[in-house]
Give the backbone structure.
Amino acid sequence: MQDRVRQLLAEVPPWSAYTLLAMHEQLASLSSANELVLWLQGLRAGMPHLPPLLLALSGRGPLMSRLHRIVYNEWPEHWIERYDDPAFRSADPILTGPAQNPIIWSHEIASIRRPTQSQKRFITACRESSMMHGISFISDEPNHRMVLSLSGQESEANLPLQQMLLMAWPHIIECARRLLIPKNRLFELTSRERDVFELISNGETYDTAAHALGIDDATVKSHVMRMLQRYEAVNSRHLIKILLSCSD
């Protein structure tokens, strides 16, 4: 890391290097996902003209349909809601294409020569929601991708911003990997399993969890039993330990 810092000091203007060093120190000091969100909010406050920002985890390969989590979001809620649909995510060329940084959205979309019907629907949705332009930085992990994206034409045209984020991205990834990936098995759960797990991990009984979710306790028990079998857990306490502390 010290060699890399010295290299950056030689390559970029002093103010950029100082900003990068400050970012690295701040990110290294964070201890939770909530603190990472607060750091991104602070970045927004310090750079009010920064285009709308998003940090997300998305599944890769066979886990594309199941792993999806928005960590930080400044985009329109109606657009984010579309990504609850796995078919919509699988049509996004940014989430499914090769990792390269930065990815220019308009170039990536234009490179689709023979779009499938789902891709056509995706492109139409992008056009209707003014989401044809933006940039993304992607890190491939064993089961998912970490994605930092900024929307809008300004993000595609602002080369100094792209250079700054390209330098900062490894530090953001290092922090996000440390804070988010150790719990990535949570993202393998279905939405209902996640609801059940969240309640029992907070001390709820099967009865109280069932009441909170509006289902019967036999259904809650069935969800728990499937999770116990999947992760070879001895009991619910063991399951909680596996899901909250185990990485891939």
Observations:
- The first strand starts at residue 53 and ends at 59.
- The two ends are 25 Å apart (CA to CA).
